[in-house]
């Protein structure tokens, strides 16, 4: 039975009732590692107008993002263990590095590639229009193409949302299989996920307006709710 957003959020609140401290601790460690990696990257590759330096910096940033994706799978593992009532610990954050990190990196690479492919029409239009002065019609076309690309990327992102969850749960899946399985599972569930995510807008906004302090409660609430959404999709609830 598909549970409503209200039911999934209620499950998340009950799960986090006496466990907020543990999740906040894991979240802080995750963001510190993420921030540290990007700070080190910026130190090693300071801003430069040189084309070669810019390409090297972009590649280094891309590699760091792939590695951070492995850490994200660890956070998903931590979340799912909490949702399932199993033992969870801070070391879960490094689960992805212990279990097939290559699959996670390949999956993240494919997700990034798919995102870039969705933007190709806009790139083509921009290149064509760059050869002459832009008229009002040109700007309108670019705006429409940009809107279409954004919508396409949004739908595809929703369809592939469960990829990392599946890699976390199933060792036998390849990166490509995880993407296909996510797309299959999300068939008919994209609107549910969109509505669920949209329902957190107010909570996350309040977290931001509180100088970020409120996010320490809002983000765990969001992640655990997504964890229950995944368990509901695969039939564990």
How far the N terminus sits from the C terminus, by CA atoms, comes to 8 Å
Structural class: mainly alpha
Low-pLDDT stretches are none
Mean of residue pLDDT values: 87
The gyration radius over C-alpha positions equals 20 Å
The share of residues in extended strands comes to: under 5%
Extended strand count: 0
Q: What characteristic shape results from the CA principal axes?
A: globular
Biggest β-sheet description: none
**H/I helix tally:** 12
Helix share, percent? over 70%
How many domains? The number is: 1
Secondary-structure element order, N to C: HHHHHHHHHHHH
Keywords:
237 residues; mainly alpha; 0% strand; globular
Report on this structure.
The protein is mainly α and 237 residues long. The protein has one domain. It has twelve helices and no strands. The chain has helices at 5-16, 20-44, 51-83, 95-98, 101-118, 120-129, 136-159, 163-169, 175-185, 190-198, 201-209, 215-233. Helix 3 (51-83) crosses helix 8 and helix 5 runs antiparallel to helix 7 (136-159). The longest helix is centred in the first third of the chain and has 33 residues, at 51-83.
Could you give the topology of this structure?
Layout: H1 5-16, H2 20-44, H3 51-83, H4 95-98, H5 101-118, H6 120-129, H7 136-159, H8 163-169, H9 175-185, H10 190-198, H11 201-209, H12 215-233
Helix pairs in contact: 1-12, 2-3, 3-5, 3-8, 3-12, 5-7, 5-9, 6-7, 8-9, 11-12
Summarize this structure briefly.
The chain is built from 12 helices and no strands. By secondary structure, it is an all-alpha fold. It has one domain (5-233).
């Amino acid at each position: 039975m598909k549970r409503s957003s209200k039911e999934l959020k209620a499950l998340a609140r009950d799960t986090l009732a006496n466990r907020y401290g543990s999740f906040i601790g894991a979240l802080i460690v995750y963001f510190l590692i993420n921030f540290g990696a990007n700070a080190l990257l910026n130190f090693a590759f300071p801003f430069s107008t040189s084309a070669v330096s810019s390409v090297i910096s972009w590649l280094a940033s891309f590699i760091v993002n792939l590695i951070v994706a492995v850490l994200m799978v660890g956070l998903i593992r931590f979340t799912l263990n909490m949702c399932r009532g199993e033992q969870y610990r801070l070391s879960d954050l490094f689960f992805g590095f212990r279990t097939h990190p290559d699959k996670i990196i390949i999956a993240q690479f494919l997700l990034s590639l798919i995102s870039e492919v969705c933007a190709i029409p806009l790139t083509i239009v921009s290149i064509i229009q760059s050869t002459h002065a832009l008229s009002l019609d040109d700007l309108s076309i670019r705006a429409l193409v940009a809107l279409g690309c954004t919508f396409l990327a949004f739908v595809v992102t929703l369809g592939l949302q469960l990829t990392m969850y599946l890699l976390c749960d199933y060792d036998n899946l390849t990166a490509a299989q995880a993407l296909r399985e996510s797309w299959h599972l999300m068939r008919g569930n994209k609107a549910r996920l969109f509505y669920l995510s949209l329902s957190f807008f107010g909570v996350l906004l309040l977290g931001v307006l509180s100088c970020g302090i409120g996010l320490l409660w809002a983000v765990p609430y969001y992640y655990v709710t997504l964890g229950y959404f995944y368990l509901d999709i695969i039939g564990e609830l």
